[in-house]
Design a protein that fits this description.
Its EC number is 4.2.1.9. The chain is an alpha/beta fold. It has 21 helices and 19 strands.
């Protein structure tokens, strides 16, 4: 897009030639221009890229479109907010530092472990970044966006707010960046929805950008089970508790301990400090994928939250954002088709979360990069599953960090031709250049298998279609649970109905059942809640005769024979709404099919004629608004996509 001056007052700048005309447009100074204070009031230099000041070459300078000679209130407010002098008011770039921080979540608040004089959680990471920006003679503005703890809300009504928080985070950062005319943004997310939220925001505002992942949590340890644990262990233990199979190890210290004692021990020791859930769950899935896309510094996705490397990454961010500004590297320069292909490949290699599919589709939609479920299917079919990482494997992200982390994995995958190392990154170098100096994966390390000996020849994430899900469903099938399943349907109209049945031990072991949880899609939930409580209870109880299917989502910690994201969802009359108890459901991960085999189209049409949509119980507030706006899961469940 060329520069547009048609609506700009004479001499007050041009439209940024990298902005998207679908979003609000901002005037900017031409490359290399100086501020002319005869026509541009001093206060209009707010949010200006530096113009040969402070050691940075200007490319563009975003300026406000306020009338010449207008009120001086903006400058007064900025001085009051801490701008130290007129020189910085004129020339220093304004960089927003967005942290997704709040009390009540291990990654985002807990963990006052002193490292070089500062405590390491996201709020403090933001302060480190702010200090670094100030050393680079930039103006840093730290602020916050809201978040939701999936682990705390899991299985409750609060989980309905989880997915909508992704779009709320994107809205929040877009709002602050554009309203305050920030020249660049550094976002510091931690948990699952935080990361796609900040990337979607970056694709909207398209200002120079870096993401710093908050980092992974350390392992917990249970003395009563005598093994390493994490938060997912607690959910699986709940299933074992309900079915009478949870017990302590037979050691001297565990004598006389009850299953309730074991549950208490797990809860007290699963989360030993700051950091995102430690397996290849959604947070680590998104972090590794975004690193493979070139939007973070090398190593960001595998540095533990409390590691010295994570603190140093925060310190280095100011230097790198300066590079992105000098070279005019924008998010949409990096959010390319090739980058999304990298994201899909590393997700398949590492055994990542099905949530990744939903978020990649949403991120691509925002960046206007064509990406569909067919692309997910294509990449899955050609990409092996190599990583022995939780939830289906033995190791955690902390272990991957110790053998070289994500950069060493990327280095190997680039050498093997599976990852595109030529994509540009926020550092100004290619992905291959970023990882070139990292150590090779040791031949005897047990976490990442060689291509000659994969866990599974193709990806664990399968896109299924059939008369059950005509517009697609997403399954997570690693192969250890088999590649096909046939069972009798047992239908639950909300997640809590299944949770209650499992807690009472009412799901039998002696019959193949396909448990169907419906009316939990983006509109029907509303909010498309995760079904970890149920899926983990099934695994913990040892119910290998069960497949679980939903129009909702799964946590990255979920595993077993699970199918989610069924589209069309029940709330809009999809076939999942027509299933009846006793129907035969066939799931085939080789043919990529999911079908109701005892009901032909005539039978389904007859059921459809008598089906009535449920009356929404939530009619006001954030969730009601979300249900009105949200699209379907097969297109990322975004809230800003409409037919013209």
């Amino acid at each position: 897009m060329g520069s547009d001056t048609s609506n700009a007052p004479e001499g007050v700048g041009i439209i940024d030639n990298k902005s998207d005309p679908q979003y609000i447009q901002f005037r900017c100074l031409p490359p290399g221009a100086y501020y002319n204070l005869t026509y541009l009031n001093l206060l209009d230099s707010f949010a200006s890229w530096p113009v040969r000041f402070y050691g940075v070459e200007s490319r563009y300078a975003f300026v406000s479109s306020r009338p010449v000679g207008g009120s001086g209130g903006a400058g007064a407010m900025l001085y009051g907010a801490g701008v130290p002098n007129e020189d910085m008011m004129k020339h220093a770039p304004h960089v927003g530092v967005a942290t997704i921080w709040w009390e009540g979540n291990p990654l985002l608040f807990v963990g006052y472990v002193l490292l070089n004089g500062f405590s390491t959680h996201l709020l403090e990471f933001g302060k480190i970044v702010k200090r670094g920006l100030e050393k680079q003679k930039m103006l840093a503005w730290q602020y916050n966006a809201v978040g939701v703890s999936d682990a705390i809300t899991m299985g409750g009504e609060g989980m309905r707010y989880s997915l909508q928080s992704r779009d709320l985070i994107a809205d929040s950062i877009e709002t602050v960046t554009c309203a305050q005319h920030h020249d660049a943004n550094i976002s510091i997310p931690g948990c699952d929805k935080n990361m796609p939220g900040v990337i979607m925001a970056a694709a909207r505002h398209n200002r120079p950008f870096i993401m710093i992942y908050g980092g992974t949590i350390a392992k917990g340890y249970s003395g009563l089970l005598e093994r390493n644990i994490n938060v997912s262990t607690c959910y699986e233990a709940a299933g074992a508790f309900s079915y009478g199979t949870l017990q302590a190890k037979t050691n001297a210290g565990a004598a006389g301990r009850t299953p309730s004692d074991v549950m208490s021990d797990l809860e007290q020791h699963a989360c030993p400090g700051a950091g995102a859930c430690g397996g290849m769950y959604t947070a680590n899935t998104m972090a590794t994928a975004i690193e493979a896309m070139g939007l973070t510094l090398p190593g960001s996705s595998s540095y533990p939250a409390l590691s010295p490397e994570k603190a140093r990454e925060c310190e280095r961010a100011a230097e790198v954002i300066k590079t992105t500004m000098e070279k005019d590297i924008r998010p949409r320069d990096l959010l390319t088709r090739e980058a999304f292909e990298n994201a899909l490949v590393i997700t398949m290699i590492l055994g990542g979360s099905t949530n990744g599919v939903l978020h990649f589709l949403a991120m691509a939609n925002t960046a206007e990069v064509p990406l569909t479920l067919e692309d997910v299917e294509r990449v899955s079919n050609k990409t092996p599953f190599l990583a022995d990482l939780a939830p289906s494997g033995r190791y955690l992200m902390e272990d991957l960090y110790k053998i070289g982390g994500t950069p060493s994995v990327l280095k190997m995958l680039i050498a093997e031709g599976l990852i595109n190392g030529n994509i540009p990154t926020v550092t100004g170098r290619t992905l291959a250049e970023n990882v070139a100096d990292w150590p090779d994966l040791a031949a005897d390390q047990p976490i990442i298998r060689p291509l000659s000996n994969p866990i599974k020849d193709s990806g664990h994430i399968r896109v299924l279609r059939g008369n059950f899900a005509p517009e697609g469903a997403v399954a997570k099938i690693t192969g250890k649970e088999g590649l096909s399943f046939t069972g009798r349907a047992r239908v639950f109209n909300k997640e809590h109905e299944l949770d209650t049945a499992l807690s009472r031990g009412e799901i039998p072991r002696d019959e193949n059942l396909v448990l169907i949880v419906r009316y939990e899609g983006p509109k029907g939930g509303p909010g498309m809640p995760e079904q970890l409580k149920a899926s983990a209870a099934i695994v913990g109880a040892g119910l290998k005769n069960i497949a679980l299917v939903t129009d909702g989502r799964y946590s990255g910690a979920s595993h077993g024979f699970i199918v989610g994201h069924v589209t069309p969802e029940a709330a809009v009359g999809g076939p999942i709404a027509l299933v009846q108890d006793g129907d035969t459901i066939v799931i085939d991960a080789v043919r990529n099919r999911i079908d109701i085999t005892n009901a032909d189209e005539a039978e389904l049409d007859a059921r459809r004629k008598v089906w009535k949509p449920p009356v929404p119980k939530i009619r006001r507030g954030a969730l009601a608004k979300y249900a009105r706006l949200v699209g379907d899961a097969s297109h990322g469940a975004v809230t800003d996509q409409w037919e013209d």
